[in-house]
Amino acid sequence: MNFDAAIERIKSLLSGRTVRFMEVCGTHTVAISRAGLRPMLAPEVELISGPGCPVCVTPAQDIAKILWLAQSNFTVATFGDMMKVPAGADSLAGARANGADVRILYSPLESVEFASENPDKNVVFVGVGFETTAPAIAGAIFEAARRKLQNFAVLTSLKTIPIPLEIICKSPQICAQGFILPGHVSAVIGSDVYQFIPQKFDIPGVVAGFEPEDILDSVFLLTEMLLDNKPDIRVSYKRVVRAEGNIAAKALMEQVFEPCDAVWRGIGLLPGSGLRIRPEYAQFDAQSRFHVPDFPDAADNPACRCAQVILGLIRPTECALFDTECNPQHPQGPCMISSEGACAAYYKYGE
Predict the structure, then answer these.
(1) Model-level pTM?
(2) Banded pLDDT at 236 (limits 50, 70, 90)
(3) Which of 33, 46, 164, 306 could form a disulfide with 333 if both were Cys (CB 3.0 to 4.6 A apart)?
(4) Domain segments of the chain: what residues?
(5) Ramachandran angles phi, psi of 316, nearest 5°
(6) How confident is the model at residue 1 (pLDDT cuts 50, 70, 90)?
(7) Residues 99-127: pLDDT tens digits?
(8) What percent of the chain has pLDDT over 70?
(9) Is residue 85 pLDDT above 90, yes or no?
């Protein structure tokens, strides 16, 4: 079925009614913007962006901790998206320009190899992400333990997706009537973990792939469930996602990490929504091993409205900085910095 036919099918089903769905994952936001689906589905279907961009939900306090390590003669290894995220007037890119040893790597295991090859350097990997990256980070810690590396550690700022979805379900301001659920995260944790959404809140959800056809299929399924008043969790991404998820990946995560309270940008402290390193692997926990201080006063640019964007409370274009002071060359917040950020997607694809 082509785009026009798929969209007409959805609009015909709605018969002039309007619905409001949230795409939780930042990769879905980019895919929707790239394909131009948002204006094509409007006005019957409003798609709002959610908190599924890991860089975007990392609070300024955690960025300040990373900067402290970079400025304290540690070798900081990180994904590229973290380089320009500000904490006050500084960033990792700025720290590196001033002589800090900051390395952009593409895999947590690369940082283990780097530490093994450079025993004179204390290497700290920045562990940011959701359940998608957590198994790989756990694998890096497990491998470092196997090699008995003394110069490797991880500063964790890992978060898990289900708990903030409960906050969103309860919010009358956000008013999400259905969820396009993340494909990558769900490939690890499975689809069964989302059953609380229809059971507690009567809201449907569909785990979607990342092709435009996948997304349109998920919108159709959400619309169908909503109109039939039969909320459920369905999987449109069956070629990758299973109800139980990836058992081996979950086991590795649970071996190395345990749940903890975590601060989310725009949401605040959510009990049990983060992952920290278990005591058995404490020697690889940079936070405790190196006595990394807290930075409660670290703050974002008060004019940046990324906190509202990641909750679907506003569109990126409703921020006064968007495409004026804030653009990819001069980003003012993580939603414009991250490749999965809603502001970056809106800007790049002209929404």
Answers:
(1) 0.94
(2) very high
(3) 306
(4) 3-45+168-235, 56-161+245-289, 306-348
(5) -50, -35
(6) low
(7) 999 999 989 999 999 999 999 999 999 99
(8) 100
(9) no
Q: Are strands 178-181 and 205-207 parallel, antiparallel or unpaired?
A: parallel
On the question of pLDDT at 299 being above 90, the answer is no
Tokens of 306: 């990324």
CB distance 211 to 347 below 8 Å = no
Topology of domain 56-161+245-289 in CATH is: Rossmann fold (3.40.50)
Tokens standing for 119? 């025993």
How high is the pLDDT of residue 87? 79
Token pair belonging to 206:
């569909």
Q: How many CA atoms lie within 13 A of 287 on its CB side?
A: 18
Name the residue among 78, 82, 88 with its Cα closest to residue 108: 78
Q: Which long-range contacts (CB under 8 A, 24 or more apart) does 241-245 make?
A: 241/183, 241/186, 241/187, 241/190, 241/191, 241/207, 242/190, 242/191, 243/190, 243/191, 243/192, 244/190, 244/192, 245/186, 245/187, 245/188, 245/189, 245/190, 245/191, 245/192, 245/193
What is the reported pLDDT for 133? 95
Residue type, 328: P
pLDDT at 89: 77
Name the token pair of 268: 């605040």
CATH of 3-45+168-235, one of 3.10.290.10, 3.40.50.2300, 3.40.50.11750, 3.40.640.10: 3.40.50.11750
Residues with Cβ within 8 Å of 67's Cβ and at least 6 positions away in sequence, in order, are 87, 90, 91, 92, 95
Q: Give CA separation, 129 vs 40, 134, 136, 203, 208, in Å.
A: 31, 7, 10, 26, 19
